[in-house]
């Protein structure tokens, strides 16, 4: 084992050469530590493709650091000495290298951040935890931004971020005369809409070895490793970004909310796993999209919509997470308590939209935003599923999932479990919405126009029942007043039939 003065710990989602923990790493006196450990691979049962992506990307990153001249200790999952915890690997590395300090970058989950706060005591050496400056708003800046605001809304945060980073501005004004082109981003899918063919990266020896390892060690986790297309280096992620900017971004805006059977990606960028793991930097992605508009290669509704997701939503949810935790994870505003239906693990259901969204998830460890929000998320909220079970599912099954981004999106945005911290109203919708924005209903056993009876779309009765059973908590929300007025005007016999049908649906969730 090499001797070193300082250990620089790099976590699996910190694969950026500009990482703050590496800023002053010295090839002679520093030792970079990276470790594949069961603690991180099993705190939820991550999808096999998520683990394989991360382990392969970690191994490639370690190779790149070695090529740059750094001393790297890379501990593989099947190393017989592996203690299978980050703390254990730090302890072992400190003892063997003789180092007397640890440097790392703040991590993305409260559970690990809590543990890290205790490391100095446990390890008996100074542990410096540096800010993660890959994000465009520090946690402290977010805390200052939100201070004194009665209501938090992403839109105002986003405008401040546009000004602060001077993105899509003309002087102090937004290009195109408005900040937000969301209203132009809601086109239903045109008949025959098909997304472009995506890049599939060739698997090298490193990736093949990881796939074999994951196949053997994580057999009980969701998914299969067939067709593993992920980029596992920054160069490969850059190829995907380039394809997105050149060929896909121009249509991103129009079809951002569309859903099409058999088209898991449509015009989405598929870069979330790469940004979240550090293979792409958010500011670079934003500048590339911005340049596409300034150079006339993509329309403003697409470029603004895309930038809003990264400069706005992504930074905003992170700020919410770190300023609301740890209490946030336990919130359950609507007192939902049903267990997660089996279909979330198997995709075995006759509801075509759920089968599609969950099927994509099992196959690709991916489904796009509207599927996550308006299909699987919406269904879980309408059916009153226990938020903790739903959040664990989202954290496990998506290759881009880390709690800092997953939790506010699931608990706050999809389930309204935080009672309105994230969203001004629940994103509740009936089958009518899914019918308008997708082509799923045509091939479904259920009918989106029916609310009761054996062929009725389960979303419909659940939608009204959800509003009815939560009247006390939601009835005064001005953004729901039209829907409550419609419900109140409904014939009491019809209301009763809907309530009864909803009970039947809720009793048979596992056989829908
Ligand atoms: P695109 O649609 O192409 O969007 C571009 C980028 O914008 C994304 O890559 C992502 O970095 C960012 N972005 C878009 N929407 C959001 C958002 N709401 N919050 C944060 N960043 C956003 N995203 C995650 O990265 N990890 C998660 O664990 C995650 N869990 C989610 C759970 C639920 C219930 C919902 C409704 C959304 C969740 N999202 C999560 C947000 C969003 O669905 C994904 O970022 C997006 O689907 C990733 O696909 P893409 O790269 O093709 O995104
Ligand atoms: C998600 C993940 C997995 C599956 N495995 C590892 C690992 O073996 N070693 C590691 O350093 N990181 C891993 N990660 C990412 C961490 O879970 C992530 O850094 C924390 O959740 C904080 O965001
Ligand atoms: Fe989904 Fe209902 Fe449409 Fe079937 S009818 S696809 S369950 S929205």
From TrEMBL:
Secretion signal, residue range per the UniProt entry: none
Record Pfam families: DPRP
Gene3D superfamilies xref list: 1.25.40.80, Deoxyribodipyrimidine photolyase-related (1.10.10.1710), DNA Cyclobutane Dipyrimidine Photolyase, subunit A, domain 3 (1.10.579.10), HUPs (3.40.50.620)
InterPro entries from the UniProt entry: Crypto/Photolyase_FAD-like_sf (IPR036134), PhrB-like (IPR007357), Rossmann-like_a/b/a_fold (IPR014729), UV-DNA_repair_photolyase (IPR052551)
Name of the protein in its database record: Cryptochrome/photolyase family protein
Species name: Rhizobium wuzhouense
């Amino acid at each position: 084992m090499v001797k070193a003065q300082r250990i620089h710990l790099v976590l699996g989602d910190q694969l950026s050469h500009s990482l703050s923990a590496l800023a002053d790493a010295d090839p002679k006196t520093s030792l970079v530590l990276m470790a594949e450990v069961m603690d991180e691979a099993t705190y939820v049962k991550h999808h096999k493709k998520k683990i394989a992506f991360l382990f392969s990307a970690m191994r490639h990153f370690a190779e790149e650091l070695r090529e740059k001249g750094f001393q790297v200790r890379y501990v593989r999952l099947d190393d017989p000495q592996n203690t299978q915890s980050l703390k254990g690997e730090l302890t072992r590395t400190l003892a063997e290298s003789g180092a007397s300090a640890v440097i790392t970058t703040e991590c993305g989950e409260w559970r690990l951040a809590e543990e890290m706060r205790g490391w100095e005591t446990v390890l008996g050496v100074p542990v410096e935890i540096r800010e993660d400056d890959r994000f465009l708003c520090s946690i402290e800046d977010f805390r200052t931004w939100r201070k004194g605001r009665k209501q938090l809304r992403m839109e105002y945060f986003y405008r401040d971020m546009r000004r602060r980073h001077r993105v899509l501005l003309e002087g102090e004004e937004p290009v195109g005369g408005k900040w937000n082109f969301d209203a132009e981003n809601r086109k239903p899918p045109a008949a025959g809409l098909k997304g472009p063919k995506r890049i599939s990266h060739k698997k090298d020896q490193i990736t093949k070895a990881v796939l074999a390892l994951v196949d053997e060690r994580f057999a009980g986790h969701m998914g299969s490793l067939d067709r593993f297309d992920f980029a596992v280096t920054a160069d490969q992620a850059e190829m995907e970004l380039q394809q997105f900017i050149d060929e896909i971004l121009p249509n991103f805006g129009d079809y951002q909310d569309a859903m099409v059977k058999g088209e898991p990606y449509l015009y989405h960028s598929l870069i979330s796993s790469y940004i979240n793991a550090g293979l792409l930097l958010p500011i670079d992605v934003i500048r590339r999209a911005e340049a596409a508009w300034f150079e006339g290669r993509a329309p403003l509704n697409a470029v603004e919509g895309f930038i809003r997701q990264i400069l706005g939503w992504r930074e905003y949810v992170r700020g919410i997470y770190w300023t609301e935790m740890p209490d946030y994870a336990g919130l359950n505003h609507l007192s939902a308590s049903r267990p997660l239906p089996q279909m979330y693990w198997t995709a075995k259901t006759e509801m075509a939209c759920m089968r599609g969204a969950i099927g994509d998830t099992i196959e690709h460890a991916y489904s796009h935003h509207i599927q996550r929000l308006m299909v699987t998320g919406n269904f879980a909220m309408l059916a009153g599923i226990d938020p903790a079970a739903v959040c664990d599912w989202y954290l496990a099954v998506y290759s881009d999932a880390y709690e800092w981004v997953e939790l506010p999106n699931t608990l706050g945005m999809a389930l309204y479990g935080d009672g309105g911290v994230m969203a001004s109203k629940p994103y509740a919708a009936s089958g009518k919405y899914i019918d308008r924005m997708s082509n799923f209903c045509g091939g479904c056993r259920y009918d989106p126009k029916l609310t009761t009876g054996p062929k009725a779309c389960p979303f419909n009765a659940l939608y009204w029942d959800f509003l009815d059973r939560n009247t006390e908590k939601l009835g005064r929300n001005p953004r729901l007043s039209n829907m409550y007025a419609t419900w109140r005007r409904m014939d009491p016999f019809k209301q009763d039939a809907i309530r009864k049908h909803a009970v039947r649906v809720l009793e048979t969730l596992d056989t829908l």
